[in-house]
Amino acid sequence: MTELQPARGTHDLIGEDQRRHHHVAETARRIAASYGFDEWITPIFEDTRVFSRTLGETSDVVMKEMYTFEDRGGDSVTLRPEGTAGVCRALVTNGLTQSLPQKVFYAGPMFRYERPQKGRYRQFHQIGIELIGPSEPLADAEAIACGWDILKALGVADDTVLEINTLGDKESHAAYRDALIAYFAAHQDKLSKDSLTRLERNPMRILDSKDEGDRSIVAGAPTIEPYLTEAAATFYAQVQAYLTGFGVPFRKNPRIVRGLDYYGHTAFEFVTSKLGAQGTVMAGGRYDGLVAEMGGPRTPAVGWAAGIERLGMLMDAAPPPPAPVVVVPIGEAAEAAALGVLQALRAAGIRAEMAYRGNLRRRMERANKIGARATVILGDDDIAAGVAQVKDLRTGTQDAVAFAEIAARLA
Ligand code: ATP
Ligand code: MG
Question: Domains of the chain by range and CATH?
Answer without folding.
Answer: 16-169+229-314 (3.30.930.10), 325-410 (3.40.50.800)
